[in-house]
Design a protein that fits this description.
219 residues, mainly alpha
Length: 219
């Protein structure tokens, strides 16, 4: 009886996380759809008119916003143990979509956008570092898988996905900071440029140290 109740609680907990994550992905999708059909004078792009004179910035922006939502959806499924065990071919296919999307589209376009980020050199450095680390962690995850080093693959996929989640956490922190402190817009941007991904990575490192590194020592 107690085992059944425990399973129910576990299922409800997972369902809640899926619902919360799905809700934020939906919000991000709504933000993305603002820019389609292609419109260079809407939302975020209204404050980027100087950059919009460059064709490569326009291309990078639309590649980035279109690919980011796929990274969020594909990346989340990679941590499903049941999917990995019951449908390994689907797990591998979605994993490849995640890796290829980041390495070819999302991270390079993010790096270029980071170079032109608002908020001065601090924000530019934060977003450029985010793009570089995103590419690097995903690349190492891919290479370790090719070498059948599954534990290293897990560690770097976790780091990669923590950086992927910055698309959501950056906006959450922006909302919280504005709600509580009401700072100037550029001050907010400089703060969330770092906070949006550094804390994610710190949490991922804690999880890796507490669980995956212990697993490595036991083996």
């Amino acid at each position: 009886m107690s085992l059944t109740i425990s399973k129910i609680y576990t299922f409800l907990g997972l369902l809640s996380w899926w619902f919360i994550y799905g809700f934020f992905c939906w919000l991000l999708l709504e933000i993305t759809l603002q820019y389609y059909p292609i419109d260079f004078d809407v939302a975020f792009l209204r404050i980027k008119q100087d950059e919009m004179q460059f064709w490569y910035y326009k291309l990078a922006f639309y590649v980035h916003v279109a690919s980011a939502i796929f990274c969020l959806l594909a990346g989340f499924t990679q941590f499903s143990g049941s999917l990995r065990q019951r449908f390994p071919s689907i797990h591998r296919l979605i994993g490849w979509i995640y890796i290829v999307t980041i390495l070819i589209f999302a991270a390079p376009s993010g790096l270029l956008m980071g170079y032109y980020a608002n908020g001065g050199w601090s924000s530019q450095l934060a977003f450029c570092l985010l793009a570089i680390l995103w590419f690097a962690t995903t690349y190492i995850a891919w290479r370790s898988l090719a070498k059948s080093d599954y534990l290293t693959h897990q560690k770097y996929m976790l780091r990669s996905f923590a950086l992927t989640l910055s698309a959501i956490t950056l906006r959450l922190w922006k909302y919280v900071i504005v709600l509580i402190w009401h700072p100037r817009p550029m001050d907010v941007y400089q703060i969330v440029a770092w906070l949006g991904w550094v804390l994610n990575l710190a949490i991922a490192e804690y999880f890796i140290y507490k669980y995956l590194s212990k697993k490595q020592l036991e083996n």
